[in-house]
Input
Amino acid sequence: MKYTTDYLREKWIAFWREKDHTILPSASVIPDNDPTALFHNSGMHPLVPFLMGEDHPEGKRLANAQKCIRTGDIDEVGDAVHLTFFEMLGNWSLGDYKKEDQIRWSYEFLTDEKWLGLDPEKLAVSVFAGDDDAPRDEEAAKVWQSCGIAPERIAYLGKADNWWAKGDIGPCGPDSEMFYWTGDKPAPENFQETHDDEHWVEIWNDVFMEFNRTEKGALESLPQKNIDTGMGLERTVAVLNGLQSVYQTYAFALILEKIADLAGKPELAKNPIAKTPEANSARIIADHLRSATVMIGDSIIPSNTDQGYILRRLIRRAIRHARKLGIQGSENESFGFCNSIAKTVIKKLSPYYPGLKTKESFILEELNREEAQFLKTLEKGEKEFEKLVSSLSRHPEFISGSPKSCSSSEIPKQVRNDKREGVIAGSDAFNLYETYGFPLEMTMELAEEKQLTVDEDGFYKAQELHQQKSRAGAEKKFSGGLGDKSEETVKLHTATHLLHAALRKVLGEHVEQRGSNITPERLRFDFSHEEKMTPEQITEVEKLVNDAIQADVPITKKEMTVEEAKQSGAIGLFEHKYGDKVKVYSMGDLSKEICGGPHVEHTGQLGSFKIKKEQASSRGVRRIKAVVGN
Ligand code: SER
Output
């Protein structure tokens, strides 16, 4: 194979270095200045402020390979072309060199023997056809021709093809795309007429990013004329080698071999583009765990929100497909499947993305943890799902609510005869999510395999109801105070406030309440903190609380709005709505906290305070048990 991802990346970097560009390291996959996106999805994404006119510290000529994640097509991964993680090669001129230089260099990089050495006979380009926003790009066409591209190999296309915009608002401009002929027959002469032929494959896009689309939809000129170009690494490598799929390139070879090995099915590596369900599973695993490895390398950890949720979906989907291939360990423990794939990914990518190597143990640990957690419930969840399916196929009309017994003669005919009518109720899908950790999308995929669908709206309704209930629970705790109002319990409640404040003083402001439970015998307080507390820290916290008790300060209560409470520096649950009135309890200058009460009148009533136990509660959460007494 002449072209590999490593080869193309190296050539790219060397070429732009030779043209006086600074080679930037890839930014993290998480955007740090774009709240509208979960991931960087193109090479220019991290550079938006600089394309808009800000000075870049590394100068006006930049290039790199950027880690990108696109999750819009997760469900299509497994076919030949879709990837959730890919690398994008890019070069940029921030108001420096112009269209003419860029086109000349593009031609040089593609055709010169020193670089890619592609046959010019197999190349074609498109340029912007022109409209009210920007003129027909005769300038670009002229430069292409002067490089050696025949006029017939230049197509003039409209906005749908030759205009690139980051989104509805933001930098944009006309572009010129380069195409490579992948057919067996010689490339057709006339590109305007044949550009839709699937054998013409786009390999590179030069964007002349000169405009900004404002929120009102108006187009304004940017302070500088930029160049922004992008080449999808894996895809271009496949195209240049005459392959049908990215999964046939070396980027995936080792990963697929590993999967084939674990599954004991060598054909999965030998024919990565087979149209069998098993080959599909292997491709899904390879793609998803490659993404997951990169994401964790950028410090994302599996969770139920945002990037963490996407990561969780990818890992869990990969594990489910691994089981379809017969790769599985014992229940309740990680069997290191994700780890073995991740190690291969790290080996392949870390020479260019060294962070993957430095973070290797973190990545492996997180994958193991997620794998173990999912395996605990996966089998039971699968059984639960099967039960649901069989109840639906017996009674396809039970699309929501609880099944009631009914004879088949009561089932409407059109439902009885049509299995596709079967819909898994939203509440059942939510139960699979909440109890067994099945992401909604996974339940939908399982359902589809059985020709069923899932009531998605119902799922979100069930989720909303659940959230309302837990919010109500939190508010009850918050406003209703203690269930048991015995003297001892109230004392321990006051001690909890002092403890919370002392922990923040000794350990830091990251300490937040994660849970509290009080019985007349002891208090139990869960809080966010990563490490075990040292004996010195425990002594210091005890001392702070005991000092406050010794000082015997009065405990005062004030009602105010949430905003006023926040401003006064009070800590506590801030889940209340704007304008809500809350009670704030102050205890000397140690503690000020929003709380429903009740509390003792002055701190001296507690007598003394002692921590009995400090231990882990869950990940990133510590638990203290403590007592008060005279
Ligand atoms: N921004 C363009 C793209 O993503 C060129 O980099 O294709």
Notes: The chain is about 40% helix and 20% strand. Residues 257-375 form one domain. Residues 42-44, 90, 164, 205, 207, 228-230 surround serine (CB under 6 Å).
